[in-house]
């Protein structure tokens, strides 16, 4: 009896160990990922270098963002593709998209809004980083900017020139439809609201190879009541064109004027033909947007179900092991009692001697 119970207890402990080992093996990647360096959780220093040196960037992390340099409001590129971040003048940068940026439009028709047909190959700067492809987003994390303006900025797409369509959108996750931000086919400026201390990445889709010029402006209201605005041209060599061809390509005609900064975009996203704020999409997909000063709030809005499901599976295995233990213990006790009774009836001589 004691031997069988001890054996059952060992089996139960083994089952319990297996359940926790399974939970650990499945849960470890998710938990470890939270501790790894997340490029969205970045810190922008005030003394980061500003460069006008011509460069071609075809891989790594970079952001568009406002800076105040020598007292002047500017829109620049923060190049974080090397060990030391460098802010660059947009005229000096060519974003190069090679064949590594080619993706095929799904047949479902869910991405027809990009201007590409189902099954068509397109060049994409993705919302999540891919090796060998520029990872372009935007941030409002410069310390001097945070000290000088109210609340946030209007980031405005004034238009684009190039052989195909350009579409910028956010994947909000949770099976929701993509949120469209900018589209080359629209003739009016398209503004989005970006809170201070925000770092966001989106999907940039180019439907045909060639050189593209994108005109983007950043505007804000200063704490001193004065409006601030700057417009820059961003160059993309998509597919076969080389950087020099892109550098020699100039904007044709006059740039559309940038609309004045409006904090109303932060609430409704409807004023001046604006699209919803990226922060509203980020609420449903925290890994893609990480506000610098409120990252904990953004991260808490996205639930990671993997550890929860793994824990539930471990609990289920534990309960199963406990049930099996008690059932087998009960059966062993009954069997032992029955064997004892059978033994007494099968040995009448011994019973007679005892009496």
Determine Rg (CA atoms, Å). Answer: 31 Å
Structural class, by secondary structure, is alpha+beta
- First-to-last CA distance: 27 Å
Number of domains: 2
Oligomer: single chain
Total DSSP helices: 8
Largest sheet: 6 strands, mixed
Biggest sheet, spatial arrangement of strands: 1-5-4-3-9-14
Can I get a quick summary?
The chain has 8 helices and 17 strands. The chain has helices at 2-35, 143-146, 243-248, 264-267, 278-282, 295-300, 305-345, 348-354, and strands at 49-51, 55-57, 60-69, 72-79, 86-88, 93-97, 102-104, 121-125, 134-139, 152-161, 166-170, 179-183, 190-195, 199-201, 203-206, 210-221, 227-238.
Describe this structure in words.
The strands form 3 sheets. The protein has a 6-stranded mixed sheet. The chain is 30% helix and 29% strand. The two termini are 27 Å apart. Strand 16 and strand 17 form a beta hairpin. The protein is elongated and about 110 Å long. Helix 1 (2-35) runs antiparallel to helix 7. It has 355 residues and is of the alpha+beta class. The chain has 8 helices and 17 strands. The protein folds into 2 domains: 2-34 and 306-354; 49-289, no CATH class. The chain has helices spanning 2-35, 143-146, 243-248, 264-267, 278-282, 295-300, 305-345, 348-354; strands spanning 49-51, 55-57, 60-69, 72-79, 86-88, 93-97, 102-104, 121-125, 134-139, 152-161, 166-170, 179-183, 190-195, 199-201, 203-206, 210-221, 227-238. The model is unreliable at 1-6, 8-36, 268-307 and 350-355 (pLDDT under 50).
